[in-house]
């Protein structure tokens, strides 16, 4: 399958979620900033579910940033992929972590302003991204959702590598992924348009969601 763009992927994903997912009590769709938000917005709109954003930063391998050796989330969440990190220089990893931690703080201030993180107590968190390459970012997001009190945590993505889907399934209560190519190369190859999502687009999509997420 080749998605036209992230919005199209979100609509395809919405059909799978509607058909197969038990969303439980008061589900909240959480788009991972930035690329997951357009997917999440389309899915939430199609299923008439409330939308919010979750800030998680991938820790990219120096020289190969698409490959994650880990990820950071709010509330001090830190997930490390030991299989990759063991091959890296500790000083280089520390520099990446320092940079991404600063970006995490910036995005929290930009997207949340004075709003606290979503209260997920007694709710199902449906975490949405535009794809799973290593799974590190999604695993950090699952950890964040559990810290915020979610009863159940589901992850929905349009495409993922078999290894990443397997990893995330160990942490989440369920993974919904319509495309798991055995020769996975990169998330962007499943999209005709995989252009970078801007801060302005994220803010617009979140502002257009009028449902109450608290």
Task: Report on this structure.
By secondary structure, the protein is α/β, with parallel strands linked by helices. It has a domain at 6-56 and 118-208: Rossmann fold (3-Layer(aba) Sandwich). The chain has 7 helices and 8 strands. The strands form 2 sheets. Strands 2-1-6-7-8 form a 5-stranded parallel β-sheet, with helices on both faces. A 3-stranded antiparallel β-sheet has the order 3-4-5. The N and C termini lie far apart (36 Å). The model has no long low-confidence stretch (mean pLDDT 91).
| CATH class categorisation of the domain at 6-56 and 118-208 | Alpha Beta
Strand order of the largest sheet: 2-1-6-7-8
Name the shape in a single word: globular
CATH topology of the domain at 6-56 and 118-208: Rossmann fold
What letter string, H or E per element, gives the SSE order?
A: HEHEEEEHHEHEHEH
The biggest beta sheet is recorded as: 5 strands, parallel
Q: Unreliable runs, pLDDT <50, ≥5 residues?
A: none
What would you say the CATH architecture of the domain at 6-56 and 118-208 is?
3-Layer(aba) Sandwich
Counted by DSSP, the helix tally is 7
Taking the alpha carbons of the first and last residues, their distance comes to 36 Å
